[in-house]
Amino acid sequence: MQKNNLVILIHGLHQTAWIMRPLAKRLQAAGFKTHQFGYRSMRDGIQTNSQRLNKWLEENHHPDEPIHLVGHSLGGLIIRDFVTQYPKWQIGRCVTLGTPHMGSICADYIWRLSPAIVGHSYIDALDGTVAPLPEHITLGVIAGNRPYGLGQVFLQYHNRKLRQAHNPLLDEHLVHDGTVYLKETKLEAAADHLILPVSHTGMLIDTNVAKQTGYFLQYGQFERK
Q1: In angstroms, rounded to a whole number, what is the distance separating the alpha carbons of residues 161 and 19?
Q2: Could you tell me what percent of the chain has a pLDDT over 70?
């Protein structure tokens, strides 16, 4: 039974483990066991944080018992690095929420203006160079298209540049969740991709996001009516 697997929830940049609590509570209500993994997104790089997750599992979890992984934004990139660096763990299914799998244009702008704001999480992660997804990993992607968030200033500026270029694929390239472009969430190796009317941070408290996350963890695909 997929619900018997421990679900590890991994937060994003500038966040702490508590922000995953609403999603954790909804998954618990659906019958899942959860753990909110906290890490230092500014001080440490992606490989260090993957190493810390591995250490936590070694101290608290038996390697014969499968785990599910759910990551928000940068947390989804940590999942990709972790499953590559530590293949000894049995991975059930993974879900990423608003994760810039192709790299983050917003983070690019911030990195050029003030690298300290994105810290060590830019290199090998938000710059789009994270490790490819291993073939045996079943991963579902949830993306938002409601443009509300702190990254709007940079994305609105970038959208103006796209409009000036008269790109024929303009509409698709303009869609974002306030921080991450829809196109950045797409990963060819993913098993499924779902777009919901939520913002980048708002997806963490959205009931439908929680429902779809649980559905994918159980069935390996999102629910479509």
Answers
A1: 33
A2: 84
